[in-house]
Amino acid sequence: MKKQTKAIRTQAKKSQNREHSVPLYLTSSFAFESAEQGKALFEESEEGNIYSRFSNPNVSEFVDKVCMLENAEDGIATGTGMAAVFASMAGLLKSGDHLVACRALFGSAHQIITQILSKWGITHTYVDATATEAEWEAAIQPNTGRPVARMVYLETPSNPGLELVDLAMLGRLKEKYGFILNVDNCFATPILQTPIDFGADLSIHSATKFMDGQGRVLGGIVVGRADLIQPIRFFARHTGPSLSPFNAWVLSKSLETLDLRMERHCRNAQQLAEALEAHEDVARVLYPFLPSHPQFELAKAQMSAGGAIITIELEGGFERIKAFFDALEIATLSSNLGDSRTIVTNPNTTTHAKLKPDEKAALGITPGLVRISVGLEAIDDLISDFTQAVEKSADALKEQV
Ligand SMILES: *Cc1c(COP(=O)(O)O)cnc(C)c1O
């Protein structure tokens, strides 16, 4: 069976009511049929649910589907994407370990690495997404006497710069040095890119984004090698970042349409990117599947489409951004992404406002940068909305001069 069929047909076991749609298992605990069964479940000689902090049928269904989509052996779901990122690090790293990470990271991942793991003696080195193989290798195995990196953590494409990391290259380095290759696959989704096929050991998602796809619930998941998921599960079971059964139920249903939605997201984004690139009042458009993207060839090699996120550069600083956002009639101003509704953000004043000027420069975050999370609306409506707002905001600035 194809993945699309399995994403629709994988379901929790039917109850005696023979329901067609999976019910919500809103229960904190599960009853034991006998003293022996309670004992067997805790000894793990019998498999089954005990308590929803450990497992729950709705959560297991969601995990099974994501493992299937990502070609992963095992997985664990969490209440948010950040809980998944943190569990993957806290469950596997110990004091004295070194983490090599791509510089272009989701803001909270950067805070975990620099402010939290550092308290426990886990050190880090940042590498540019577009660094060469030799530069990555030097960070992983330096000549300074520190141990080889225990984990390499990265996002591709990155937020908001849409830089790509060469997954096959890091897969090769992993074979040589034996670190854990941990990839945040949130922007691409398993529909466009499966890092495990390139040698990644773990793939992480903020399910809040495209997996939900309609801006309703928070959730996260980490899937990958069974022997690595085991210590992450131990960490999560005892520290409690569990995904709620309700959110799991919503997310699992959403996976039935992920393939369909990503197809439309990507088609809309491609067409909008092409239209904006052709417009004289837009200074720059970045989209992985535009030939003008500096890593277009790599994008085509590791992704099946360009994704839903476009960034554009408008001249005129924050004044221009204000006029542009005021003029948009369809797109929402919000810091979220991965929604059926198109969303625009100015990273410089919102999601990335707290970064220092040199950090912003390294990530390409300029005052005129706009991140567009392209939704599922009719593409003609989106192109005309963005075009009129680009023109109106350009005219407004000319009048001021
Ligand atoms: C949103 C996001 C996260 C964090 O996920 P939450 O569900 O908000 O905790 C992590 N990584 C990336 C790439 C994201 O976009």
UniProtKB/TrEMBL annotation:
Pfam families given for it? Cys_Met_Meta_PP
Q: What's the catalysed reaction?
A: O-succinyl-L-homoserine + hydrogen sulfide = L-homocysteine + succinate
- The UniProt entry's coiled-coil ranges are 255-282
Query: Which key words are in the record?
Result: Amino-acid biosynthesis, Coiled coil, Methionine biosynthesis, Pyridoxal phosphate, Transferase
According to UniProt, this protein's pathway is: Amino-acid biosynthesis; L-methionine biosynthesis via de novo pathway; L-homocysteine from O-succinyl-L-homoserine: step 1/1
Which Gene3D superfamilies does this UniProt record tie to the protein? Answer: Aspartate Aminotransferase, domain 1 (3.90.1150.10), Type I PLP-dependent aspartate aminotransferase-like (Major domain) (3.40.640.10)
| Modified-residue entries (N6-(pyridoxal phosphate)lysine), positions | K209
PROSITE patterns this protein is in?
Answer: CYS_MET_METAB_PP
For this protein, what is the EC number? 2.5.1.-
- Which cofactors? pyridoxal 5'-phosphate
Enzyme class comes to transferase
According to its UniProt record, which protein family does this protein belong to? Belongs to the trans-sulfuration enzymes family. MetZ subfamily.
What is the protein name stated in its UniProt record?
A: O-succinylhomoserine sulfhydrylase
The organism is Spirosoma utsteinense
